[in-house]
Amino acid sequence: MSKKQSQTNSIAKTKRDFLKYIFGGGIIALISSVLYPIFSYLKPPKQREVEVKNVKVGKLSEIENDSGQIIRFGNKPVIVVRTSSGDVRAFAATCTHLDCTVQFKKELGVIWCACHNGKYDLNGRNISGPPPKPLDEFRVIIKNEEVFVSKKI
Amino acid sequence: MKKYFKNIYSWIDERVELEEVVKFMGKKYVPVHSHTIWYYFGGVSLFLFIIQVFTGILLLLYYKAGEELAFESIQFIMSKVQFGWLIRSIHSWAANLFILALFIHMFSVYFEKSYRKPREITWLTGMLMLFIAFAFGFSGYLLPWNELAFFATKVGTDIAGVVPFIGDSIMIFLRGGEDVTGATLTRFFGFHVAILPGIFTLILAIHLLLVQRQGMSEPMGYENTKIAERKTMPFFPNFILRDLLLWLIVLNVLAILAVFFPWELGRKADAFASAPAGIQPEWYFLFMFQTLKYIPPQILFIDGEVFGIMMFAVAGGVWMMVPFWDRKSSRGEANRLVNYIGLFAILYIIVFTIIGWLV
Amino acid sequence: MKNLFLFIFILFFSFSISFSESSDKCFECHQSLGDKQSELFVKDIHFQKGISCADCHGGNSQSEDIDEAMNKKSGYIGIPKGDAISKTCAKCHSGTKMSSKYKSALPINQLEKLETSVHGKIATSGKEHIAQCVTCHNSHGIVSVKNPASPVHPLKVVKTCTKCHADASFMKTYNPSLAIDQLEKYRTSLHGKKNIKGDVKAAECVSCHGSHEIQNAKDIRSSVYPTNLPQTCAKCHSDKDYMKEYKIPTDQYSEFSKSIHGVTLLKKKDFGAPACNDCHGNHGATPPGISSISKVCGSCHALNAELFSASPHKKAFDEKEFPECETCHGNHGVVDATDQLLGINQGSVCIKCHQENKFPKGYATAKIFRSIIDSLEKVSKEAILYVEEAEQKGMEISEAKFKLREAHQSRMEARTMIHSFNNEKFLEVTKKGFDVSEFIRLEAANAVEEFYYRRWGLGVSSLIITIVAFSLFVYIRRIERK
């Protein structure tokens, strides 16, 4: 081989090697950029899943008689009341008048809306004030001394 | 590096006689001519199917089938799972690209008359896979359990129920009951992730085996080219690498679509709500849907819808049987009729899809 | 002698009869019989106008013969019963006969109105309307409404109405839930007190409820239906001349209709807002007393009233005889409470009493309250903007959106908590708002960041793919060249 030929050969060889490196590196980068999202995906997210079927309220023994509390059910507020006789009930906590969030009024034994003094009895029925409709009822399930609220009845 | 690959290779070869297969693969050549580009679409379809299987499996890890949770689980995937948005959007986009690629593949094979002897079975398996792909699309569409899907399924299964005699049984079988309910969702889920993939894979295996066995079909009149002028390229590595290049581009397209046009979720299905305006099936059903709308309610003594469905069934059947009634192509003669029918089919599909989209 | 007197008496008698203009033989005969109706009829305006018995009862008023006079053939109808009574009155009172013959300016649609009114409904007997003309106007001693002897004169009409409306066993048969204590309540009201002292200008039943056209108070046509009531009260209370001697303002209606209560009730037809009677009472109408104003306002604005009553302002206001809620919010012209009312700026109500050197504790509190509310507003608005941006970019942000409710709720609660005038409680409530707004802002900011991260990620991976594809392309070219 002449000197010129060997020179072109070596230049070609460097080109080939360069290409090989680019290609190889590129392939590795490609595989990583495919595998990275997949592995991140496989890791379960930190936040607990938005369980919209069942929301745990807590232990039955921790819910006092004659009390009420607001919990989050998916994207909606739900009021969980326990009557003086120990009955646990749950209703949508959005007032049917103008959508304020209602609360439990122990002194009156009713569910009360602070915005315009609307009142609902402990069966969710609108009994006084502007609310035009009763509160939607949710299902209360008590399993193993734990209280769950599930989809509307 | 190379030594390690060689060692692994010989280890396997000593046990499985890989060398024969490799020799066979190395001898395969792909004809190079002006129509070569169409050869790649089978591979593109395959690539998209593989993408579907992978993203589908990943989605399976977080998706919850069942009407209380399906919608929310997808919401969860889109918002809380890392890269969940990417996996889901790719899955939805790839489904559509998959069917598009299948159409291109099918029509290119049709116009090339590649279905002629000895490739009749390849064509038949291909057509079967197309129908299964439609079933994949139809069943998968319901899985998010959103408003659009719910009503589209209702309408779609209603149409299935119109088939004479067995229509009702088909509809009840599909719906898992009289109406579209959570049972339908469960059933469609079973179809989509287990039954259809199983059947499809089997048929795909036969299809690929046949292609490997018989090699790429040559265009009509290729025998007239002088042997010296016939150009080919080795299947391995040239054709494979080129196919790979195309696959990379498709992958990039999918990523761009997923980021700039994320797939919507819409509103959760409510059986008691009225159907929102403008219910449409997915685009690949649109031409049939639109045709049905134009058929008069009664044709002679037959109900209009039944007539329409029967018409499509017959058309599909005729199309599927083309290797058997196109005698001319098996003899190597040009068949203008086949071309005209094919052209008509393409135009019909395109025009009616556009009309269906605009209406 | 006795005979002479008898002769002269009979002479006089026949003279008076022959001199009577229209010889109403019915009346003459019945009067000679000494019956009650003719006794009453003498004072009747119909009698004074020369209308005879036969004009209502039918028959021949010129004949002295009972069979001729009270003959069905001559139109005699006897004592009309039920609806026939009103039809009899309507014979003249609903036609143009009256205005032309008697030059009367009286209305002629009373029966029409009565029949469509609540009293025009079918009575429990099923045979007639509940009320006939004579039910309120009497039958034989009818006088003009302006005549103090009339049972529907302003000073007497109350008794007439309560004849039925205070009778529990009667009202029970029509509407057991209808109150029967209107008179009792009325007598405690300013209107009632003036009425019993003989003031004909003071409102009585007819002034508000109407006379012939009375509708059930729940009927939208009723003059006391909530959306009509303010105008009914304004009929007198906005009339400067009418109210001159009472020396009270006459701007209540105009103020009310501009107020948030007025606009809500009259324009938006929202019955959550009060009409005059909701604060003043209806039959027992009296403006609420100084120390009971917050209780009256508190019947709807319960929480604010409760907080106020427990605050140091209650004692201070009652001592100084400041009318509680009204002092800051006004009475009839209650405006929509905005943040401007709070604080130490121009237009706030706090600085009316509190200045830097006068009641400084309140001044400081007002300043703090206002600045906190302002910053809570600002923070919440920012959070909303962030959420909107994230949403617009198509990011999933439903949890943060849900929390926006909480931020809104906290702002509402803060404005209510002002009425406690207690720093601790106020800060507690506003802290919730600040915390949740911060959470929302973070979530939304993260979502927006994620949006940009995705595009960056796409750019990087596209670059990688392009590099690989390009080098693959070059490689293919190379091996094909060989």
CATH topology of the largest domain in chain A: Rieske Iron-sulfur Protein
- Counting helices, strands and paired strands, the structural category of chain A is alpha+beta
Q: How many strands, which pairing sense, and closed or not: the largest β-sheet of chain B? A: 2 strands, antiparallel
Q: Numbering strands along the chain, what is their spatial order in the largest sheet of chain A?
A: 1-10-9-4-3-2
Annotation field: number of helices of chain A:
1
CATH architectural category of the largest domain in chain A = 3-layer Sandwich
Work out the radius of gyration of chain A.
32 Å
Could you explain how this protein is built, in words?
The complex is a heterotrimer of chains A (153), B (359) and C (482). Chain A has 153 residues and is α+β, with helices and mostly antiparallel strands. Chain A folds into two domains: 1-45; 54-151, Rieske Iron-sulfur Protein (3-layer Sandwich). Chain A has one helix spanning 3-42, and strands at residues 54-59, 67-73, 76-82, 88-92, 103-105, 110-113, 118-120, 126-128, 137-143, 146-152. With 359 residues, chain B is mainly alpha-helical. Chain B has a two-stranded antiparallel ribbon. A two-stranded antiparallel sheet of chain B has the order 3-4. In chain B, a hairpin with a 2-residue loop joins strand 3 and strand 4. The model of chain B has no long low-confidence stretch (mean pLDDT 89). In chain C, 57% of the residues lie in helices and 0% in strands. Chain C contains 26 helices and no strands. In chain C, helix 17 (252-258) crosses helix 18 (260-267), helix 24 runs antiparallel to helix 25 (398-417) and helix 25 (398-417) runs antiparallel to helix 26. Classes of the chains: A alpha+beta (153), B mainly alpha (359), C mainly alpha (482). Chains in contact: A-B, A-C, B-C. Chain A binds chain C through residues 16, 19, 22-23, 26-27, 29-30, 33, 50, 72, 75-77, 97, 100-101, 114-117, 129-130, and chain C through 271-272, 299-303, 398-399, 401-402, 405, 409, 412-413, 416, 460-461, 464-465, 467-468, 471-472, 474-475, 478.
